[in-house]
Amino acid sequence: TPVVKYPRATEPLWHEWDRKAQKCGLRHTVYAVNGDRYTGEWLDNLKHGKGIQVWKRTGAIYSGDWKFGKRDGYGSYSIPDPVTKEYKKVYTGWWKNNRKCGYGTTFYPIGEHYEGEWSGGLRSGWGRMYYQDGSIYEGQWLEDQPNGEGMLRLPNENRYEGRWKDGKKHGPGKFFYLDKGQLFEGIWAADIPKCGILIDFGRDEAPVPTQYPIPKV
């Protein structure tokens, strides 16, 4: 009987080209169509491991850990100064799924900075915020606002210790007027004291004490 020979199936060339294009392991700089560039490690054609990403449009740089194409792990994000072109760190800390998550420090353009916990890119958990006017808030945060127990210290050393909600004093708290030598203890609602007691507190050491002490009840 005659033997029928079938031609061996040839693999399309693009299959081989696609295999060669699959990025895995440490690679030199890879440029995206929009001009962004990445130098670092890959896995299954995704950024994975240590790497540096530079965004062309903003000039921003991320240097740190990646998992399956997203910033995940420890890393720092910096942007160039519009005038000097020198890079300034914006955030250094932990990331998850491309967002700030865990402990980290953010530097804001007006000289303020926050160090503490993040969740989903927002300040959440425990943290300390240094404001432009010299005030410092230390305590609990929720979705980018002081929420829970916390202390706000003003530039003149006066301070509030107590409960917060949506970034405002809300609930039981104490306000120390150290400049006058007085203490107000009571209940607050949306930053306004509703009821409480005002007593002398460290009046003898106060820089500008009230003219007369509060009489005893």
TrEMBL record:
Pfam families: MORN. GO terms for cellular component: acrosomal vesicle. Keywords: Cytoplasmic vesicle, Repeat. It is found in: Cytoplasmic vesicle, Secretory vesicle, Acrosome. Gene3D superfamilies: Histone H3 K4-specific methyltransferase SET7/9 N-terminal domain. SMART domains: MORN. InterPro entries: MORN (IPR003409), MORN3 (IPR052472). The keyword Repeat applies. Assembles a suppression complex (suppresome) by tethering SIRT1 and MDM2 to regulate composite modifications of p53/TP53. Confers both deacetylation-mediated functional inactivation, by SIRT1, and ubiquitination-dependent degradation, by MDM2, of p53/TP53, promoting a proliferative and cell survival behaviors. May play a role in the regulation of spermatogenesis. This is MORN repeat-containing protein 3. It comes from Chunga burmeisteri. The gene is Morn3.
